[in-house]
Amino acid sequence: MLLHHRAQNEAQKHRRGGEGEDPHRIPALTALVVAAGPAGAQDAFPDRAITLVVPYAAGGGTDVLARMIQPALSEELGVPIIIENASGGGTLVGTERVTRAGPDGYELLFTTSVVTLNTLAYRSPLYTMDDLVPVAPVSQQPYFLIMNREMPFDDIPGFVAYAQAHPAEINYVSLGQASPTELLAGRLQHALGIELTRVPYPGSGAAIPDLSSNRVQMQMTGASQNSASIPNMNILAVAGDERIALTPDVPTFAELGYPTMVGGTWFGVFAPAGTPEAVVTRLARAFAAVRSTMDQTLNDAGHYAIRMPDGFAAFIEADMSLWREDIQRMGIALE
């Protein structure tokens, strides 16, 4: 800012016919003013509304989470936060929109781990992770294995014994070939040495009546109050690093001898590639402050803080390597 001010004074002095001023200095001074501009703009960030693009329909879990933190984020940044739903194409519509947005921090992607799965599961992905800059994690949600109560078992050993004796007789809910529900169900079969039958559904809501009536028997689903409250279902295990407060009596798969069964969905924020580091840092600090302020509220809603000692980008890469193994083992290659 000081450089900017001095350059303006020098230019004004020349226009007034300043004694001894060299006319050849004007282009150089102009260049200094222009060069100072972007840094000043970054220092002032943000100075207008920021849009969070949610690549899911209004009312869904990701949309609800974005709206939960919207007021606190607006207060932290001092500008309005606008949420726009851009669903379609398995999140591709909203994601592509942000990859094409101006890299100034005013249009951000508020999404889930599906943002990485799309780059792994398609033969010719429409974007890569190089098109986006990780800004901040928001939460993670490990998955439950829920099972209909009419089945003749209520724990993982009983499930394994029954499934091995009745191969492919247990049906499970799948929400898409490259969805976490499908990939974790595939990992489950591999880890437990069992065979299940996939039944596709367009969304979790559509599957609930069939789960409750035992038309389909099980689902890998987010560890939330909603999934814990589905009628006529037992929770056999949680695919987390540790037990969660919502269901303290439910063991983790790791406790039961299946250490690879750790996974679920994480939620995070991304900016277009090329967004200035200073802007990304400002946004990251704001989201971290919101997470700290709302930690108990988010935990109560089943959205737990992400442990990432090496940073968000390193966490994403490690997570992608696990999903990559699942996708390759399952032979998934979408067109």
TrEMBL record:
InterPro entries: BUG (IPR005064), Bug_dom1 (IPR042100). Residues 1-24 are annotated as: Disordered. PANTHER family: BLR1237 PROTEIN (PTHR42928:SF5), TRICARBOXYLATE-BINDING PROTEIN (PTHR42928). Belongs to the UPF0065 (bug) family. Gene3D superfamilies: Bordetella uptake gene, domain 1, Periplasmic binding protein-like II. Residues 7-24 have a biased composition (Basic and acidic residues). This is Tripartite tricarboxylate transporter substrate binding protein. It comes from the Bacteria.
